[in-house]
Specification:
heterodimer; A: about 190 residues; alpha+beta; seven-stranded antiparallel β-sheet; 3 helices; 8 strands; B: alpha/beta
Chain lengths: ~190, ~130
């Protein structure tokens, strides 16, 4: 019998794949980079969302620069250039940062359904500032995923408490979740 | 011109939906959560379709759907869910509550326009005033 990878390995892979896929929708190409330092460079905006289930609970945080969040706005909402010098544009990007965290969490949630994990999520929120710094993670299993684009750096922090008995194997009976972009008309 | 109500706590998504639907000839109005949407609809806002997020503060999209069905004046409002969620049980609940469709974010604007056109094609519009004789 093939041995299953431990849950954090599966989660690491899902976070990397889905972060890259999320940004690709807006035409931003990300590359996984070694997480060489603990505090992101140019941490100007953070989108944050909580999640819980009986065997996995914690917080997802997406951190990057004003410029990268601006470039990652969705089609139809990125035609207008934004300026870091105006309060209105920071407000706008805080909204997008929280929605982006929500959409990335949705991707993870939908894929974890296939492993029998049913997460409940909080409403998202966001922070901005000249140089955001982050505190000590709540769990020993906090994962800092670092990505780079051609001009900027992005971090995804997945700070999760994982049930030590959790085995992440694909479940047959759970039914596949609908995928991003799917339309189902009743 | 058909009016569409977009209900989402993200102004970015509301802007994206309006940017997709306005050039296609729809008039888009906004609500930033389920409670706001319910107040607007109960206040007499007439819409051809509501496009509604699920995960929102105050009143979630599925709870809004449930409330609409209990209010006779808005019970037959057409609703398309637009959300990051793809869980089969949530989709089944929306269908049971009378939603007409489910779309998972991020969405392709052209596909949203197509779905809205299809869902609103059979919606009766208020009759135009009769021309006065003579």
């Amino acid at each position: 019998m093939k041995e299953l990878p431990p849950p954090p390995v599966v989660l690491d892979r899902l976070i990397s794949e889905q972060t890259i896929a999320q940004f690709a929708v807006s035409g931003v190409e990300l590359v996984v980079s070694p997480a060489g330092h603990q505090q992101p460079a140019r941490a100007e905006l953070a989108g944050i969302i909580g999640f819980t289930s009986p065997s996995l609970r914690g917080t997802l945080m997406v951190v990057s620069s004003f410029a990268l969040f601006s470039r990652s706005r969705p089609e139809g909402a990125r035609s207008e250039p934004l300026s870091g010098g105006t309060a209105r544009d920071w407000l706008y990007l805080r909204d997008w940062a929280s929605e982006l965290a929500n959409q990335l969490m949705g991707r993870l949630k939908n894929r974890l359904t296939g492993f029998g994990l049913h997460l409940s999520v909080s409403t998202p929120t966001a922070l901005s500032g000249a140089a955001l710094a982050f505190g000590t993670p709540a769990s020993k299993r906090a994962i800092g995923h670092r990505f780079t684009s051609d001009t900027d750096e992005l971090w995804v922090f997945f700070d999760a408490v994982v049930d030590p008995d959790l085995v992440m194997s694909p479940k047959d009976g759970d039914g596949a979740a609908a995928a991003e972009g799917d339309i189902i008309l009743f | 011109m058909s009016t569409i109500l977009i209900v989402d706590d993200s102004s970015t998504i509301r802007r994206q939906v309006a940017a997709a639907l306005t050039p296609a000839g729809f008039h888009v109005v906004e609500a930033d959560d389920g409670e706001d949407a319910l107040m607007q609809l109960l206040g007499g806002l007439e819409v051809a379709l509501v496009i509604c997020d699920v995960n929102m503060p105050k009143l979630s999209g599925l709870d809004l759907l449930e409330r609409l069905r209990t209010e006779p004046s808005v019970a037959h409002t057409l609703v398309l869910m637009l959300t990051t969620e793809g869980q089969p049980e949530s989709i089944a609940r929306a269908k049971a509550l009378g939603a007409k469709g489910w779309m998972v974010k991020p969405f392709v604007p052209a596909l949203l326009v197509g779905a809205v056109q299809k869902l609103t094609a059979g919606v009766a519009r208020p009759p135009s005033p009769s021309p006065s004789p003579g």
